[in-house]
C-alpha cells in the first residue's frame, strides 16, 4: 500500500509546511524557510521537537533566543511560547505529540 501524500501549505510568506507522516500519537512535519522568513511566536499543547535538516535559524523558546544550525535540535514542552527567524534558508523537521490535527 503506498504512503499517503500530504499537500504543501504556505502558512506565511517564505514558509512551506508539509506533513510527512502521522498517526494520532505522533506527527512528523517538514517546514522549509526562505532566508528572512519567520515562524510567528505561538504556543500549543503538543510537545514538539525540532531538528534542523539544513540552514540556520534563531529560535525563541520561552523568551530565550537560541541560534541553531544543521544537525542541531530543540524540544519544546507543551504550551511553551516559541517561534523562529530563518537566518539562512533551510528546512526544519518537527515532530509533534500528539498529532496536530489542525495541520490535516
UniProtKB/TrEMBL annotation:
InterPro entries: Bacilysin_H2HPP_isomerase (IPR052535), Cupin_2 (IPR013096), KdgF (IPR025499), RmlC-like_jellyroll (IPR014710), RmlC_Cupin_sf (IPR011051). It comes from the Bacteria. This is Cupin. Pfam families: Cupin_2. Residues 31-87 form the Cupin type-2 domain.
Amino acid at each position: 500500500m503506498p504512503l499517503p501524500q500530504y499537500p504543501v501549505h504556505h502558512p506565511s510568506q517564505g514558509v512551506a509546511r508539509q506533513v510527512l507522516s502521522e498517526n494520532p500519537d505522533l506527527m512528523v512535519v517538514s517546514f522549509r524557510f526562505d532566508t528572512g522568513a519567520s515562524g510567528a511566536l505561538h504556543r500549543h499543547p503538543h510537545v514538539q521537537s525540532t531538528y534542523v535538516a539544513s540552514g540556520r535559524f534563531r529560535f525563541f523558546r520561552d523568551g530565550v533566543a537560541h541560534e541553531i544550525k544543521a544537525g542541531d535540535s530543540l524540544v519544546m514542552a507543551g504550551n511553551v511560547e516559541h517561534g523562529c527567524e530563518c537566518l539562512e534558508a533551510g528546512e526544519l523537521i518537527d515532530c509533534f505529540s500528539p498529532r496536530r490535527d489542525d495541520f490535516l
